[in-house]
Structure prediction request, 365 residues.
Amino acid sequence: MSKRPLLALGAVILALAGVSIWLDQAFKAAPAPVASNAVPATIGDGAVMAASFPDLEGRPQPLGQWQGKLLVVNFWATWCAPCREEMPIFDKLQAQYAGKKLQIVGIAADTVPKVQEFQKQTPVRYPLLADSTGALEFSKRLGNRLGLLPHTVIFGPDGKQILAKLGPFTEPELAAIIAENVPK
Amino acid sequence: MTTKLFVPSMLCLLLAVPSTHAGSPGAAGAQAAKASKAPAIEAPELLDPEVAFRFSAKLLDAKTLEVRYAIADGYYMYKDKFKFSAAAPAALGKASIPKGDVKDDPNFGRVETYRSGVAVKLPVAGLPQDGKLSVTVISQGCADVGVCYPPLTSKATLDLKGSSSETPSAAKPLSSILNKP
Prediction:
């Protein structure tokens, strides 16, 4: 009889040790913390529309020139495979909306010659702008903390941001967003 | 005009950013409060580049440098994007980079990529008398969810005693890479 309390105590100690080991392992096995890579924009819509990027002839192209349309700004780079895979979707939708109030613009985190070379091989029917340093900085100010590509930001005809996405769109996904938001 | 987000994928984190940003810490939050209102941001959860592509380097001997990247699951690195350099007077020879997974990329043709990890050995010439070597490695990788990280610069100062001080990877100004032909 006198052994029972000892046995019970032993069982409790073993259980606590087990929990301790489990907790230790659980914490060790915990994955590295993942910070959200989408953070609030630190630039106002007015400043976005005032921003300007050079086209492939080196002429500055202010984003504000497309105000009044649904504006899809796609940040990309020639070295980014998912970006290049997504671009035919933009091209197709821009062609579908020819003459309507949709403007897709690609801003490359690349040099002009690299984008010119890309455009020769893979022409797209929407303007491509290029800024090897400014494109990613601007994309980061729009909330893309890590400067990941592709990054797409959609602005309404009033110049206000509607939506942003890191990673490529599927065609039905983007088509639905455009259909819903493009001015009639 | 309505703010609308299409169905996010399983991997996507949907963040509706309130216009007031109540509780947003620091200056960024304060600035954001002045910025655009209520955009929705759809973003996959992704590791910071230093975690996704964990860099380490050591001198195996006075003439051999080893650079390693431990690559997280769901991420990969491109073989042809590695660039290695050492601070003078030391110089690095041709890197022995192992064969990667070969992929026929519709955009880039035949490319080699690494998953899990990669170890690269490089001959070192002109190691100074104090045995210290400062190395810089540029690399580039992507995540399977369909995003790519900008080129990363990783630095380490090494010596033959085995100690090393490694600085976290940092985004390299793209101009310094992309302006090169």
Remarks:
- The CA atoms of residues 135 and 149 of chain A lie 11 Å apart.
- The mean pLDDT of chain A is 85.
- Chain A touches chain B through 53 residues (CB under 8 Å).
